[in-house]
Design brief:
Elements (H helix, E strand, L loop, with lengths): L2 H28 L9 H10 L1 H21 L4 H4 L5 H14 L5 H18 L2
Length: about 120
């Protein structure tokens, strides 16, 4: 895999990670809410106007464009599994930014993911 191909995949993954973290920050800002017929419009408006959520949608849109470029250069059977790098970055960022739990099981799982990414990227 060329450096350009890997960079496209990596940037796409990081944009997806950023989108997930922005969505979490946005939902933290809005707070817990119930879906009901009475609050669909008020909650929908809050979600549609929350800057974290809007930014996340931009990250997703840009990641799709980058993913198209990546798939024009790399086999999907190699590129798609590399998306799992996002799990690693997301878990670490969620721990750091949102104080989410980080336990030995997650560490082992992350190790397995990293090993799998290394194996697949050399295929």
């Amino acid at each position: 895999m060329s450096l350009i191909s890997f960079t496209l995949i990596f940037v796409g993954v990081m944009l997806n990670v950023a989108a997930q973290l922005l969505i979490k920050a946005g939902t933290n800002t809005i707070g817990y809410f119930e879906f009901s017929s009475e609050n669909i419009l008020p909650i929908g408006w809050k979600l549609a106007t929350e800057w974290h959520i809007i930014s996340a949608m931009g990250c997703y849109a840009l990641s799709v464009l980058i993913w198209i470029l990546a798939l024009s250069r790399v086999q999907v059977s190699i590129a798609y599994p590399l998306l799992s790098m996002g799990y690693v970055v997301n878990a670490l960022a969620a721990w750091y930014l949102f104080n989410e739990a980080f336990n030995p099981a997650k560490v082992v799982g992350i190790g397995v993911i990293i090993l799998g990414v290394v194996i697949i990227s050399r295929a």
